Amino acid sequence: MKKIVLLGYMGCGKSTIAQNLSKITNIPFLDLDKCIEEKSNLSINQIFEQHGEIYFRKLEHEMFLELLQSEENNIIGLGGGTPCYANNHELLQKEDVTSVYLKASIETLYDRLVHNKSKRPLIANMNEEEMKEFIAKHLFDRSFYYNHAKHKVVVDNRTVDETVGDIMKILA
Ligand SMILES: Nc1ncnc2c1ncn2[C@@H]1O[C@H](COP(=O)(O)OP(=O)(O)O)[C@@H](O)[C@H]1O
Ligand SMILES: O=C(O)C1=C[C@@H](OP(=O)(O)O)[C@@H](O)[C@H](O)C1
Ligand SMILES: [Mg+2]
Fold first, then answer.
1. What is the pLDDT of residues 32-81, one digit of tens each?
2. Distance between CA 165 and CA 74 in Å, rounded?
3. Rounded-to-integer distance, Cα 92 and Cα 108, Å
4. Mutation test of ligand 2: which of 101, 120, 145 has the most ligand atoms closer than 8 Å to its C-beta?
5. Cα dihedral value 13, 8, 41, 52, nearest 10
6. Which residues make up the binding site for Mg(2+) (predicted)?
7. ipTM above 0.95?
8. Whose CA is nearest to atom 6 of ligand 1?
9. Which of 29, 94, 156, 168 lies at a 20 to 30 A Cα distance from 16?
């Protein structure tokens, strides 16, 4: 079954764009983090606190495989780190997967994350200065994996509707 997979750094808009793309296409939307939370009955924060990041990455890999194997057509919003662990980046190239990297600049990510960090354990306790440096370095490290997506859409200075439109062009 066909899967549209959205990936990119925290705050690039995966969850928001996937939801809006779903409304337009009528293809059901699944957020990988939400699926992990529902299955484990814990929030992402609680998983990191109680079991640590390595355990989260294991759940994330298993859930990604499970969603890709389902019989439905789906739009899947990944977590920001999903492509960067457990060789998940190789799954972005599968024949039945349309993978789209939502590419955002450090400035865009910082502006969106600075007031939205509490549910993101990797940055939740950072001050503004630390966050800016962290995003810059981390994005650089992760870009190798994000660039395994089949398609790339730049999201800087684009509204939600414009980005959804850019993805619709890829799907046409
Ligand atoms: N043009 C835009 N496209 C996507 N998200 C945007 C845009 N402008 C502002 N936002 C906000 O940025 C945040 C993106 O968060 P989210 O969708 O959770 O990203 P991700 O799932 O990639 O971490 C949301 O608070 C969203 O409302
Ligand atoms: O970048 C990451 O490693 C993470 C991103 C989060 O998802 P979002 O990108 O939707 O915030 C979530 O999976 C977890 O906090 C780890
Ligand atoms: Mg998300």
1. 999 999 999 999 999 999 999 999 999 999 999 999 999 999 999 999 99
2. 18
3. 24
4. 120
5. -130
6. 15
7. yes
8. 13
9. 94
